[in-house]
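Protocol step 6 of 9: fold each sequence in the batch and record its structure tokens directly after the sequence line. For illustration, a two-sequence batch is reproduced in full.

Sequence one:
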Amino acid sequence: MKHIATLSLLLGLTLAFTASCSKDDQELPAPAPEPTMTYSRSIVYQDNGQHRDTTFQAAQSQAYVTQTAQSLVVGVNPATSSESISFELSRPKLPAALTGTYTLQTLRDQTLDAASTYQYRQPESLGGGSILYPSSMQHVTGRLVISSYDAKRQLLSGTYTATLTGASDPTVAYMTFPKRKCDITVSGTFANIPVRAVQ
């Protein structure tokens, strides 16, 4: 009888432990999806239509999203940091869901949704340093699309495209004059990028 009672007690404890483990397993949140991003840049020279195109895939790119009470900034760049693009939105003007299609500000209209800055870092052979192309000083068309926002995990996804019309050629030494005029288009995607709060 004692033997049967002991077995019953052990069986009961085993079942309780198994049920407890199963319940714990079910309550674990699913792992966050991996962030992915793409980045493509095309330079088309206005004088002869010559192209300089480069596409970087997810393994070659990185992205970030930062947020303050005043702004939300989305940035994407090749891992080499040879160039980058960023978009800044006014946080108080954004809907709670963050999703939407946002037009890019340009030299002639700073009232549009997002300020953008394209940056091209020159190699040391051309003098080094970075050339900045802010939308406040450039003719820019394009848009930033925030397609989804996972508020629970704070992950942002979307697409972007920006065309700088009549920009100075970034691929020649900074002191070269006159510089050829070109149209620079940067486009790509970003998915599951963590939104990081900054001061």
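Sequence two, same batch, same settings:
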Amino acid sequence: MIINNKILNVDDYYYGVFMTISESLTGFSLNQLLSTGLAEIYYRHILKHIEAATFTEFLNVSKNVIENSQTQEQLSHRISTEILSNVSLQEIAQNVITLWYLGTWEGAYINDLSYKEGLVWNVMHAHPPGAKQPGFKSWGIKPVNSNS
């Protein structure tokens, strides 16, 4: 697999690793993650809230996992065995997933946008109540049925 570099002109190699591993951890594409408008904010937030050495270890292992996986299946397996099964990295990976899906870090929203742009709303085919309305006449559209 290839690591995405120079995304949004952030001059930090590890940012590309962060975004590439975020794709695999969330199941959302790079473009979908970037469209939240929160990628750089999330990256910088994590840098401020955990030890640099701990985050760097997570990113170095992620880099190794990404670069040494030839297929999506290999990548998924290696994430499971080398990141999610590793006690020292598991919590960071889980926090990154929660950050993207819910917009929270350790139970607190990063900012107002993080609530509105949480990936959970896309998964639920819903909108964040009180923050982002579904649009005029949306009540006339039949809801998405996940069983069909």
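Proceed to step 7 once all outputs are recorded. Observation for sequence two: The first strand starts at residue 104 and ends at 105.
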